[in-house]
Inverse folding.
């Protein structure tokens, strides 16, 4: 993928706030080329305000009169549209479209077209595209805000580059080594002993208490430090509590 | 996944416009439960304006005083944060976190916490979470707008449910059957004949013209109607053009 060869094209955006929000959405995802086709108001302080720290993207934005001018030098053009579009045309969701766009960006300029806030791209504009992109939405409300749609598409492009930077396993990169089975077994012995001592576990009628606790602690995937903390608690508990005499208690009850 | 058991929790949002944009982002992705912890201004006409057709989500939003009240009945709590968070804690990107949230939503209430516009969730709030969620961003600008972050997370949840509704192959659901190889070969014969007739292809020195045209048309995956159109063009071309006499031309050149 070559992000420098991917441009976002807004066709006749009417709210300058959206243009600013688009600039921010792009920059947070590592894209910088914005082309505006006949924007209603631009530049505008609403755009500047919504762009926050992406004003460089706004300032570098190219303003053109026609879609032709926006995509003349492009090798691959993608048009965003609603799913119930009338044209039968190749269409993909943002995830799969991102792969196509990334691939094509290595071979030429790629344009991603977003239509007007109120009624999107025209059929004539959609027919200029190599591929259509539809964002899956709820049946109850299918109209995303313009900048939100841009954010999702840019996010998918960025995920292609950095999706694997974050751990796939939530515990990857954990700062302590996992507790060994040997130490975990010692912990269970210590736990059982302590629970018996404080009168919570009756050795003569243990029920399923230890299996339940094993299932709980085993799911945790404890690290050595956590295990040491738990053992420290058990040790302190044992020191502070008078051992329950289960034999006497049984006699008393009988 | 049970979307009715997933709530979006905004902790101390300061801009009512963002609350409205969040409501719209949620509804377009099929979510409806919004909880606001001590919002600065709510209800507010900015929120109403930005929600557009998601005012039902705003009207049903629950306003509470504390994070405790927002998540008391939840079984699984996810906190969004920047990647350079100080806490070592289980963390996933939105795609992988969505799987965890969807799974847990079948077993209990799930809360997804989004922090303040200016400085996110506090460490204390993050420590209330089972899982952290970080959206991969550009190093140059890592701060997404609040509603944009909500949009991405809700989009990933929605993609889990409907990601496969759109064709995986961009040409799936095409309205015409693919042209058969038999018909495509007839087309190539017709094409070669026509190109020869109009003087574009010299049968004695064809170079790589036909292989190049084959590569081009084969990539298209033409349907029968398209093939018929092309053959119609060839037929008309043949009718209208005087055949080039390649033998005579060769003599003339020699």
């Amino acid at each position: 993928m070559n992000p420098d060869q991917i441009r976002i094209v807004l066709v006749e955006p009417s709210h300058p706030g959206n243009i600013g929000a688009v600039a921010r959405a792009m920059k947070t995802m590592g894209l910088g080329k914005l082309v505006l086709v006949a924007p209603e108001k631009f530049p505008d302080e609403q755009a500047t305000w919504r762009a926050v720290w992406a004003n460089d993207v706004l300032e570098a934005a190219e303003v053109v009169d026609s879609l032709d001018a926006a995509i003349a030098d492009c090798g691959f053009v993608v048009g965003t549209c609603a799913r119930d579009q009338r044209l039968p045309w190749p269409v993909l969701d943002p995830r799969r479209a991102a792969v196509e766009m990334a691939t094509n960006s290595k071979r030429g300029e790629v344009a991603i077209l977003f239509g007007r806030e109120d009624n999107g791209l025209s059929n004539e504009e959609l027919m200029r595209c190599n591929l259509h992109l539809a964002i899956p939405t709820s049946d109850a409300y299918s109209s995303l805000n313009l900048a939100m749609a841009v954010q999702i598409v840019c996010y998918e492009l960025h995920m292609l580059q950095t999706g694997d930077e974050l751990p796939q396993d939530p515990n990857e990169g954990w700062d302590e080594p996992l507790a060994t089975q040997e130490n975990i077994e010692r912990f269970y012995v210590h736990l059982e002993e302590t629970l018996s001592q404080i009168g919570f576990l009756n050795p003569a009628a243990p029920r399923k208490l230890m299996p339940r606790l094993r299932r709980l602690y085993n799911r945790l995937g404890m690290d050595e430090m956590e295990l040491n903390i738990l053992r420290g608690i058990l040790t302190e508990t044992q020191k502070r509590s008078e051992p329950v005499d289960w034999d006497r208690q049984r006699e008393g009850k009988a």
About this structure: Chain B touches chain A through 50 residues (CB under 8 Å). Chain B has a mean pLDDT of 88. Strands of chain B lie at 6-11, 33-37, 62-64, 74-80, 91-92, 109-114, 131-133. Residues 146-162 of chain B form the longest helix (17 residues).
